[in-house]
Design a protein that fits this description.
The protein is built from 13 helices and 18 strands. It has 396 residues and is of the alpha+beta class.
């Protein structure tokens, strides 16, 4: 008589599988290795950043379902680098709750329209919005309720300023509607804000929520230039932001790491976007906190109790380093050497195969010593000047 072993009881080769192989997957892999965990990555190219640190690579499009199945067969749990996944196809695979966060939890967050509907359903403030499809069906009188300028956003795939278009006049809008598929865009009211803030946190399987300090993000041409942690916020704003974060993750029974971008100004605190993953605004946590956002995700996904989050310094600045033009006079190797010589620098190179204009190539973090927000802000501006003298922003 023979006995068939239950496949769910077979020890798999890798603790974690990551769908995606970019810089977020790289830093997730580094965090996993620090915990002694083996990692398998599924990504398009073996030269993608995470491949250099992973234990095994499945070289395939992250949307390829056949390769997703191979990843599942190899790994105890599967996590995501980003939200650009095919929920419907993944749902066809019998996964035994292998995905963190669950597909059900992440589904309302994979596009902007479903995000907006979720935010509205739990009465969280955000800019007034409408899908372009619904906008086209408005009467002339109803259209007049939308004043210019407006922000038009792609429903899927927008990041780092891509998929965002500012519309100044009615003629601009009609021209845009003529040239683009209405089902793929939405319209938002234009918000005159004072600050852009972000909050990143985690929720574990027991419903415990841990959050990083609220940070202020500074944009250049719709792309994050640098981040200051912590932001200058009061108790009431911090509590409101935490309540918003808690409401979203509890409503979705979300397990993992999630980031929220906010506008803050005369209209109060408004959600800009939700990122169901690790987020650029919390990269500072690698050096500045007791547990980074990547460590939180790795721990929660692999069954390790995640550490409580505490700042281990007065504050931190994180500066994004984006690709420059081919004819930039200083080579990337020279820039890296010069940046590494700045006192207190923590440089993270992503190992990307080529430098192209605007591509995220690296980031650099400095821990701050100032006791007040004003002192830390001044310290940050001095460090930012030093960094930008060596590696300027391509988005002045």
């Amino acid at each position: 008589m023979s006995f068939k072993q239950n496949i769910n009881n077979i020890k798999k080769h890798y603790s974690l599988g990551i769908i995606g192989g970019g810089q977020l997957a790289l830093m997730l892999t580094e965090a996993a290795k620090n915990r002694g965990l083996k990692v398998c990555v599924q990504t398009k190219s073996s030269s993608d950043p995470a491949c250099f640190k992973a234990d095994y690579v499945i070289e395939a499009d992250p949307l390829e379902i056949k390769s997703n199945k191979s990843l599942i067969n190899e790994c105890e749990k599967i996590i995501f680098e980003n939200e650009w996944i095919n929920i419907d196809e993944l749902n066809l695979i019998d996964t035994n709750n292998i995905f963190i966060p669950s597909l059900e939890a992440i589904k309302p967050l994979v596009d902007r329209i479903s995000q907006k509907k979720l935010i509205d359903s739990i009465n969280i403030p955000c800019p007034k919005w409408i899908s372009i499809k619904d906008f086209k069906s408005l009467s002339e009188e109803e259209m007049e309720n939308w004043s210019f300028p407006l922000m038009v956003k792609s429903n899927k795939g927008g990041y780092d300023g891509k998929g965002n278009t500012k519309i100044h006049t009615k003629e601009d809008l009609y021209s845009f509607l003529t040239e683009n598929n209405s089902n793929e865009w939405l319209i938002e009211e234009w918000i005159d804000y004072e600050n852009e803030l972000a909050l990143v946190g985690s929720r574990d399987h027991n419903g415990n929520i841990r959050v990083f300090p609220i940070v202020e993000t500074f944009q250049s041409n719709h792309v994050c230039d640098w981040v200051l942690s912590p932001a200058s916020t009061d108790y009431d704003l911090n509590l409101f932001a935490l309540n918003i974060f808690s409401s979203i993750v509890n409503e979705l029974n979300y397990v993992g790491v999630l980031g929220i971008e906010f506008f803050y100004g005369v209209n109060g605190l408004l959600i800009n976007e939700i990122a169901p993953r690790t987020h650029n605004s919390a990269h500072f946590s690698i050096e500045a906190c007791s547990s980074s956002q990547f460590d939180q995700y790795v721990c929660i996904s692999s069954g390790i109790t995640p550490p409580e989050i505490k700042m281990n310094c007065e504050g931190a600045i994180m500066i994004n380093l984006l690709g420059l033009k081919k004819d930039f006079p200083t080579s990337i190797e020279t820039r890296v050497k010069m940046l590494s010589e700045i006192n207190g620098s923590n440089l993270h190179l992503y190992g990307k195969s080529s430098e192209t204009l605007g591509r995220k190539m690296a980031h650099i973090t400095f821990l701050l010593k100032g006791k007040t927000h004003l002192e830390r802000y001044k310290e940050s501006k001095e460090l930012l000047t030093k960094v930008r003298d060596i590696w300027p922003s391509p988005n002045p």
